[in-house]
Amino acid sequence: MEKKNGGRYGEILWTSLKLGLTSFGGPAAHLGYFRDEYVKKKKWLDDRAYADLVALCQFLPGPASSQVGIGIGLMRGGLAGAFLSWFGFTMPSVVLLVLFAWLVGGGTGFDTGWIRGLKIVAVPIVIHALIGMGRNLTPDLPRLLIAAVAAAGVLIVRTAAGQIGFIVLAGAAGYLIYRNRPPSGKEEGEVPVAVSRKTGIAAWLIFVLLLIALPAVRTAANHVLAVILDVFYRVGSIVFGGGHVVLPMLEREVVPAGYMGTETFIAGYGAAQAVPGPLFTLSAYIGTIMDGIPGALVAVGAMFLPSFLLVVGMLPFWSVLRKKSWLKAALLGVNAAVVGILFSALIDPVIPSSIFSVWDAGVAAVALILLQFAKQPPWLVVLVSGVLGAAIHLFLG
């Protein structure tokens, strides 16, 4: 059994590490990479269970894509699996941002050709995920309409509260439409969670206690590491809306206090967008500027700890709740809304921040053909897009 678990843990770490090295393009693209790897290739869960997990993480504060990765690791290998899944996905960008903070501080820009290609690849990655998830999760007219309304609503109401609100409305619509739907005879999305409810309750208690206690620890310790611990844990606990929302929150915490200048802060934000993995690893850069390697380790740990605790706290109860017939009906609507929200992310910000010319659109088309029709692995598509982006930058400007 030990050897079996060891092999499973190694597989979790290696799979998440590959994703951490190649997942460019932001949260929406990350969800596409995850689906391709965990649902299509590994078959650790199906589209319905995956969409359920995505929907759950949309309700939680923190980085949704990282939380999905933690959740999949938790399902696959318990607490150790959750940690390994997070570690593999997060550490590549943490290392790169620490190096950036060391080597160039705030003095180097990142607007280069290969970055252009890496931004472009987010478009086909999201389209590829939309095609697959849409086929499975919006197979009839009511769910297509729910997805369309969710997409339009999220594009109009551009707040995290609005996004959560449309997911709730989609759940209500799903319940009203599908509450009398006969059982399919096949349970889809049945994924065991190797964590007890007691562990889930303990995670919730730790989450709340740290949120209350850390400000007092910061005051009593009067040390920069205590400041980092308090700031990043608090921001990681309350930020909704993804990595871009964390920018103004962190800026208000560290720039006015004199830990770094505005230009240095913005340079780190640019670097965080240029590396694979979650944008929340901006914490590694800021922590390094504030207090070197110890600061980076504390900042990254504090930033992601709330996400870890919330996922561990929720999943044991979610896995039971989602078996209820009324919730199954609601989840049909919620899952359709997830497709709509992913489509809205494609419309804004993915396309506007990635496609600036007909040449960029051509690169995106090549990448989509490689993904959707040639069935090439995402890492190869990322490599090809980076090379083509660099060529466009070099020869066409």
UniProtKB/TrEMBL annotation:
Residues annotated as transmembrane: 12-34, 79-102, 114-133, 145-178, 198-217, 224-247, 293-317, 329-347, 353-371, 378-396
Subcellular location: Cell membrane
Keyword annotations: Cell membrane, Membrane, Transmembrane, Transmembrane helix
Pfam families: Chromate_transp
Entry keyword annotation includes Transmembrane helix: yes
InterPro entries per record: Chr_Tranpt_l_chain, Chromate_transpt
Membrane topology designation: Multi-pass membrane protein
Family according to the record: Belongs to the chromate ion transporter (CHR) (TC 2.A.51) family.
PANTHER family associated with the record: CHROMATE ION TRANSPORTER (EUROFUNG) (PTHR33567:SF3)
Protein name (database record): Chromate transporter
UniProt source species: Bhargavaea ullalensis
